[in-house]
User: What shape does this take?
Amino acid sequence: MTTPATPPEPAGTTPVDWSAHAAVLFDLDGVITPTAEVHMRAWSEMFNAFLSEHRSEDTAGDWSAYTEADYFAHVDGKPRYDGVRDFLASRGIALPEGEATDSGAPDRAPTVKGLGNRKNDAFNAVLARDGVSAFPGSVALLDHLRDLGTPLAVVSSSANAPAVLEAAGLADRFETVVSGAVAEELGLPGKPAPDTFVHAATVLGADPGSAVVLEDAVSGVRAGAAGGFAVVVGVDRGAGAEVLTGAGATLVVADLAELVP
Assistant: This one.
């Protein structure tokens, strides 16, 4: 018996019916802007410098080079200090927590917060020097949602989210930005906990069950799934479609242009 062919979708349709949802919540780095690449380089430079500086010391732990796999497994999408803690824990390296004012300079005793601040300094230097442009497909989706009048938010673990949006010329597209700094101020746990997404939906007047989350990080997809959001779109910028689906993505796309009618 021959199985009937699946009919093609009508022209102009997408996997998400945007008009059926009350709000859309975007991660920033890797979803709207290619700043995830800047973050990846900043993390790599910071961790490999730290590991190299202390590798010869008679200290417990795995001091081999930090890799891209470490980024996706332990750092991607998380608040900065959480990323430092989780990577160090994966290597069996123990450091004191330190203070938010620690510089992380090579001549200072390393701390969790000092390393996080050292990474942040590297990111800001690249952003100031090179600027940032949004992914064209992401801008196309933002244009479509603006035409629909859909309330939009950015939910980012980065404290730099407002500066990145300003540099990309997109600051006026979002009714609220829940950055890492906002989460800390409000005492909200970061991704993979769903709290920052739920807070953004609430600010927009939407229930999670009526809102869409777009994320490229495994931790962010897990946050969207844990929050009970109607649709969790995984944007595959390197984590892998199977990994994002396994973390709870409803569907996975390579670019947000795929979601524009």
